């Protein structure tokens, strides 16, 4: 186990009906002018928008709106939010939505007190040293952004998708009300499942040794997602399945709680970001396609971890099989699960062809080789993307 | 799963050598006068005391000392600390030690801004509404007090041992340096192992349904403690075993992270507190004796959980056995493990006889029946204590 610092100050309010605690929580922060950040309008169809507005009015808060945050949130939208905050003296950025909405809210919050352009943070040209307070009402179990300091933002003009992570970007509180996810469409539920599993796997496939607790915590989340994912797809308003998925998504990526002292890999995320920076596909679609191929490309570097993954997470019977066979069976089980729940397995399924791959590979390694399980150069990335065609 | 609120703002600095980060962390809090709380002097023998003093001097902090905190920390000591803080305008309470030292520090910190006597909080006559900042350097893996808001304090004059828990009592930061535990005597290492396992089991044996992730998180800690406990006893300076135990102890009881939305039991703790309120035995000695007897007394109320415990935690082979047999085998495995590492199994081993049991049973239910897995009245407590003789 490596040395580490862990600090996660986000307060979580979890459970059916918790969305009605919003007003009180905002009042406790003493906020007076709220930037309400949301997406394409599903919160209006479900009535959540009205519930939020009503509570904010009840506590006498003034509301400024930033609607229309995109699934891959754009820096242009973030800049619009920053200007609104400055013009209207906003003192709380409230995200009501899924990971994209929350990420956009975080970028707005860190951008407001910074004199330069917010994109500097994404290019690592500047360090985040302050932020407006952030709060969230989560409507989609997926990214874990509700309990961490990270965000992913896209610049469509340059086809760049980049991330930042900062202690200043942890939400003050996040409301996790599983009933809000009952109406999430099947394809977004699928994407959420792939996303949270990928987050755990990025941490789990590590070269750090002597981390027995962390490995088990990762396996616990994976097993629970696998069991509950299909239940939620079969019965979208299944209270336990939705609650379990929501908790798993949050714990999967809440500041590294499950993998403290382990060096995660994250190469698959880096590769996927290049795909969805050029093609406007869902992040999780790219992950579903690339992750099993990354596994096949690297598993021999630490076959014991892949064997353990196969046996403990997928219940592969080890008896009579070689390590190689067990590891490959675990990778195959991952691919089959993704396929079974309806996630894509080939870039060509999404009409992505060979022609963009070299550019993606070059851009993926812009800051140097990616990944820690195995460091990947442009050639490696290209090979994995070609396996994914 | 029940609804819940989770908020754990304690910052953790974990790893070999982290004790040397103390000065910088205190400086970041802006503290000027530090109450240094410690126990019987082992930190002087190991050199940790000098390391702490040197760092506090380097940042120009003034130091006031509260030495001699007892293994079952006494309210008289806490009162002495409160007076020191008031007289010397202390602005940080720094615990350097194990759970008892940290608990005493917390009680001092919450007592300072309160006009009445600190014991009021233990009797639930008053609510904690403020505290001095608290920080810790942990020297013993056991109680989890380094990352939660709870404390247990004893009044020897009245033979009362009581607890409080408050959001104000979370440490601002805790330094977890596993190398500091290499010199912990074997019996205290044993006590730590029993303590952390008991904390997890109090949460795990719950009547709350549909908590698959939480159950697995609990099992993960138990399995890891079981594996690493014996390693640390065989080789006290085993770096990985000590690091794994330290992480397990902290995660076992850090504000309920592993059991969010589950109602824990805690009857065994309540019963044990009555034993060690009268006899000055280590808390974990009492837990080791009572816990398996509590299990035997209640397991039929939810045999599936005890079956799962036996199979997943202890690797009991279920094939060809009844649920009853599997559950009992898990309870037996727990008893045998405690015995194997050298923890006591009978009150009579500690020279505790029948005569005090009725009084303990009455005092245990002073605020009403105890436990949530099964509510226990005085008769139940007496029966379990008699099983423990």
TrEMBL record, chains A, B:
<keyword id="KW-0560">Oxidoreductase</keyword>
<dbReference type="GO" id="GO:0046872">
    <property type="term" value="F:metal ion binding"/>
</dbReference>
<dbReference type="GO" id="GO:0008106">
    <property type="term" value="F:alcohol dehydrogenase (NADP+) activity"/>
</dbReference>
<dbReference type="GO" id="GO:1990362">
    <property type="term" value="F:butanol dehydrogenase (NAD+) activity"/>
</dbReference>
<dbReference type="Pfam" id="PF25137">
    <property type="entry name" value="ADH_Fe_C"/>
</dbReference>
<protein>
    <submittedName>
        <fullName>Iron-containing alcohol dehydrogenase</fullName>
    </submittedName>
</protein>
<dbReference type="InterPro" id="IPR018211">
    <property type="entry name" value="ADH_Fe_CS"/>
</dbReference>
<dbReference type="GO" id="GO:0005829">
    <property type="term" value="C:cytosol"/>
</dbReference>
<feature type="domain" description="Fe-containing alcohol dehydrogenase-like C-terminal">
    <location>
        <begin position="189"/>
        <end position="388"/>
    </location>
</feature>
<dbReference type="InterPro" id="IPR056798">
    <property type="entry name" value="ADH_Fe_C"/>
</dbReference>
<dbReference type="Pfam" id="PF00465">
    <property type="entry name" value="Fe-ADH"/>
</dbReference>
<dbReference type="GO" id="GO:1990002">
    <property type="term" value="F:methylglyoxal reductase (NADPH) (acetol producing) activity"/>
</dbReference>
<dbReference type="InterPro" id="IPR001670">
    <property type="entry name" value="ADH_Fe/GldA"/>
</dbReference>
<dbReference type="InterPro" id="IPR044731">
    <property type="entry name" value="BDH-like"/>
</dbReference>
<feature type="domain" description="Alcohol dehydrogenase iron-type/glycerol dehydrogenase GldA">
    <location>
        <begin position="9"/>
        <end position="178"/>
    </location>
</feature>
